[in-house]
Amino acid sequence: MENIEKVHLVVEEKYFPPKDIVEECIVKDYESMYEKSMQNPTEFWEEIASDLYWFEKWEKVLEWDFPRAKWFVGGKTNITYNCLDRHVKSGKRNKVAYIYVDEDRNEKKYTYGELLELVNRMANGLKSLGVQKGDRVSIYMPNTVEAIACMLACTRIGAIHSVVFAGFSEGALRLRIEDAKAKVVITSTYTKRRGKKIHLLETVKEAIKPLNFVERVVVWDRDGELDEEEIDNRMVKLDKLIDNSSPVCEPEVMDSEDPLFILYTSGTTGKPKGVLHTVGGYMVNTYLTTKTVFNIKEETVYWCTADIGWITGHSYIVYGPLANAATSLIMEGVPVYPHPGIWWEYIQKYRVNVFYTAPTAIRMLMRFGEDIPAKYDLSSLKILGSVGEPINPEAWLWYYKNVGRERAVVVDTWWQTETGAHMITTLPSYPAKPGKAGKPMFGVDPLVVDKEGNPLPPNTVGYLVIKKPWPSMLRTCWGEPERYEKYWKEIPGGYYSAGDLASIDEDGYIMILGRADDVLSVAGHRIGNAEVESAIVEHPAVAEAAVIGKPNEIKGESIKAFVILKAGSVPSDKLVEEIKDTVREVLGAIAVPDEVEFVDKLPKTRSGKIMRRVLRARELGQELGDTSTLED
Ligand code: WT7
């Protein structure tokens, strides 16, 4: 029999956390802690930052010179010291940091002590290649602890990492290496997906062919399969670097505002933006949010299913969990291989307490039916996280019932590459509402406004803005400061504009409806309409293209492309396939349109801008809306 107290009470669509979970929560009183973060931010952030180690204390918590913020001004630290040395020095040398599992269920554990040594060896190895503080290093690696160690090796010595998701194509990779002017690229011979090897080194070799500034390529030769003749003079094996280096490497003394990493994300133009995060504020806020949203304690087993190539991986596989000395599971592969219950199998096997995934994955696993999770003992689960796109109530309830067994709480975390850390969610001790992300995190001051910046009444859809700076906010877009300023100047009032549509209910719960701008969300991946369009026109037969997102039950959105061919080219199925292949080559598989339709004309404004809104409305059989600016 179920203990009655363990069952959530449903009151007006609110799901109250069970008593035993609340009792275990690090933060039991969200309201008063949030209040403090707003009323007395200096004291609030000083207290949190004091949990971490600083070589020199900051002089000032915040310096706000609109739209530029500095946090923990003058503070000196190193994020790897806080993620590794601090724990090793406090008796956690033998605590497991990561349990890695591959697609064949092989597992490998890394303790904090082992990870620190690996990171130090790699850091010394990078130094021996001439990598210095401020240099950029691109990382194109599988979702493994080796990849994490590469990231940490960079930040140990003050180099700026730029991780590129290993599913990106050669073209997308080249663009990112080129934009960051990376001195070194780190890769591995392959990654595995559905039992198939995906060759990463080959992609890197092609990507860097025209890039002379790339001095070295470090290769993790996973199976020792590289022949000597395959290794050119730019290449060096990761194992060699590790073996030849000392396991001791003093952490570089970093200023709070020194760059930590660049991560590229899609915007409304064809070129992705290099979001830059800095050391101090990012460290403090990923530490705080991981601790309080996921309730990380000494014994917690935590699993975030993201890939380190995305911000979720950076903040909630690497830096946040490590800063909290968590034990994390990390998996290389897909959620349905070798079978669609593999995630539940691992939750049972490793007694996972906190599980963090994306709605698109939940919806995909839902399709296989509830009998699959029902076969496993998921009683270890306490917190179920969601991220990446709005979670529809149907998926929320499925997750809650079939995975959480109505005993675990669901936290729907809204945030962005730019925000660095969770911005809106409900803490596990706080009631949640399915389909609504919830309440602002500490120090976050959100508002829903119209285009002119006027606050909107409850339950009215408008633009989501953040009124004040927060520690883990992006500091700039790499090489494009004007793009950074746009976030703060898009909407009058001096607010950060998130680019999302949202509404706030009378209880202050925020619901996110999706992007307000020309950015798609396909299976939780952010893809700019313009990026896909410019990839399509790389096909020699294409004159012009427009791309829209269509609602899709599993992926959230699917891509449809409207294509005008050049004179002399004739529509055909073969051409459709070729166009899809072009997108696959230029951007990668995640951006390939599901549908391609050939058209003679595209709706445009008189100034020549394609009206994607009109295409979308036509496609979905909706009202066209205001077409007064339509040219024809
Ligand atoms: C965009 C940011 C943050 C990690 C993954 C995505 C959408 C993200 C939620 C959520 C509704 C969400 C927004 C946001 N998004 N989380 N819980 N509910 N929408 O990072 O690639 O920078 O994308 O993802 O549209 O603006 P990203």
Structure notes:
The chain is built from 19 helices and 34 strands. It is α/β, with parallel strands linked by helices. The strands form 10 sheets. An 8-stranded mixed sheet has the order 14-13-10-8-9-16-17-27, sandwiched between helices. Strands 7-6-19-18-20-21-22 form a 7-stranded mixed sheet, sandwiched between helices. Strand 18, helix 11 and strand 19 form a beta-alpha-beta unit. Helix 13 (359-366) crosses helix 15. It is globular, with a radius of gyration of 24 Å. It binds 5'-O-[(S)-butoxy(hydroxy)phosphoryl]adenosine. 5'-O-[(S)-butoxy(hydroxy)phosphoryl]adenosine is lined by residues 265, 311-312, 386-390, 412-417, 437, 498-500, 512, 515, 521, 526.
Spatial shape = globular
* Major sheet details: 8 strands, mixed
Number of strands: 34
Cofactors, ions and other ligands in the entry: 5'-O-[(S)-butoxy(hydroxy)phosphoryl]adenosine
Strand content: 25-35%
Helix content range of the residues, please? 25-40%
Distance between the termini: 67 Å
Radius of gyration: 24 Å
What's the tally of helices? Answer: 19
Flag low-confidence runs: 1-11
* Helix/strand structural class: alpha/beta
The strand order across the widest sheet is: 14-13-10-8-9-16-17-27
On the 0-100 scale, what is the average pLDDT? 95
Secondary-structure blueprint:
Elements lengths: L9 E2 L2 E2 L3 H6 L5 H10 L1 H9 L10 E6 L2 E6 L2 E2 L1 H14 L3 E6 L5 E5 H17 L7 E5 L4 H13 L2 E4 L6 H11 L3 E5 L1 E4 L2 E4 H9 L7 E5 L14 E3 H6 L10 E2 L3 E7 L7 E6 H15 L7 E4 L6 H13 L3 E5 L10 H9 L3 E4 L1 H8 L4 H4 L8 E5 L5 H11 L5 E5 L10 E2 L13 E2 L5 E4 L12 E5 L9 E2 L3 H9 L6 E9 L5 E6 L3 E4 L2 E4 H8 L5 E11 L3 E10 L7 H14 L8 E4 L13 H9 L12
Parallel strand pairs: 6-19, 8-9, 8-10, 9-16, 10-13, 13-14, 18-19, 18-20, 20-21, 21-22, 33-34
Antiparallel strand pairs: 1-2, 3-4, 5-15, 6-7, 11-12, 16-17, 17-27, 23-24, 25-26, 26-28, 28-29, 30-31, 32-33
Helix pairs in contact: 2-3, 4-5, 4-11, 5-6, 7-8, 10-11, 13-15
The chain binds 5'-O-[(S)-butoxy(hydroxy)phosphoryl]adenosine.
